[in-house]
Amino acid sequence: MKDRRGGVVAVAGLVAGVVAGATGCVSSGAAADDAPGGDPVGTLHRVADTLLAAGSSRAQTSMEMATGGTRVTIRGEGVYDYRRQLGQLKVVLPQDPSGASEHRPITELLAPGALFMKNRGAGVPADKWVRVDTATLSDGNLVTGGATDPFAAAELLRGVRTASYVGRTEVAGIGVRHYRGTADLALAARGATPGNRPSLAAAAEGFATAEVPFDVYLDDQGRIRKVRHRFSFVNSGRAGVVAVASTVLLYDFGAPAVVRLPESRDIYAGRIAE
């Protein structure tokens, strides 16, 4: 993945290509006669704070990539503690193009400024973690890890510049309000909490454009139930811009979210094979 300044992201190599699409069941038929009062932009600027008040939740993530005529999906599932900004996901990679057996699930721990991965492979011992400084990635780890950090996805909405209310619909049987618009990564970075600010600032410089189209679905408490961002970056070694779509589903608010970061002795310090 090449940034606008010519740098190359080569972290774990978990996402190698384009990502575009997502999971989540949303019914059609949004009503247009129940638009809430207030400014949609202001409403969306506050959703990250609403998650902080909610405390924790379970989460599902999804990325799809289309490259060479093949669509590939990477899925994740786990829990997130918004107040500590710590999460744990089990990320499942797709089958090899040959149809070989699936990869072992990768356990990811999400923390302010860091991504930890276990079962990474590529020469890393099975009992060791790989640690990545997300501020060093040109995408701020919005894409590289194969899953977008749920709180980072919410904080990106602090950068909303334009938004409109689409109508009411449902996500997984829950009544929600659907909004659509465009967020600016640089603006989001300036308004983000200290833990996410460096990573979002890196993403603002690293993607092909700092503008991120989105669709977000809020429940009646103003909490995100589903958010889908569409990123784009310059593909290393190929002409043109790669489109990436990432979806995060949040549910079971208040669920226990116990996340323990690895000790330094458990972090792999050797070379990682590409």
Count the strands? 11
The helix/strand order is HHEEEEEEHEEHHEEE
Class based on secondary structure composition and strand pairing: mainly beta
Which band does the percent of strand residues land in? 35-45%
- Helix fraction, binned, reads 10-25%
Mean pLDDT: 83
The backbone outline, from C-alpha atoms, is globular
Q: How many separate helices?
A: 5
| Spatial strand sequence of the major β-sheet | 6-5-4-3-2-1-11-10-9-8-7
Largest sheet report: 11 strands, antiparallel
Radius of gyration: 18 Å
User: What does the oligomeric state look like here?
Assistant: single chain
Low-confidence stretches: 1-12, 16-33
> N-to-C terminal Cα separation, in Å?
14 Å
Summarize, please.
By secondary structure, the chain is mainly β. It has helices at 40-45, 47-54, 150-155, 185-191, 197-206, and strands at residues 56-67, 70-81, 86-92, 106-111, 114-118, 129-133, 160-171, 174-184, 211-218, 224-234, 241-251. Strands 6-5-4-3-2-1-11-10-9-8-7 form an eleven-stranded antiparallel beta sheet.
Any overview of this molecule?
This protein is mainly beta. It contains 5 helices and 11 strands, in the order ααββββββαββααβββ. It is globular, with a radius of gyration of 18 Å. The longest helix is centred in the last third of the chain and has 10 residues, at 197-206. Helix content is 14%, strand content 36%. It has helices at residues 40-45, 47-54, 150-155, 185-191, 197-206, and strands at residues 56-67, 70-81, 86-92, 106-111, 114-118, 129-133, 160-171, 174-184, 211-218, 224-234, 241-251.
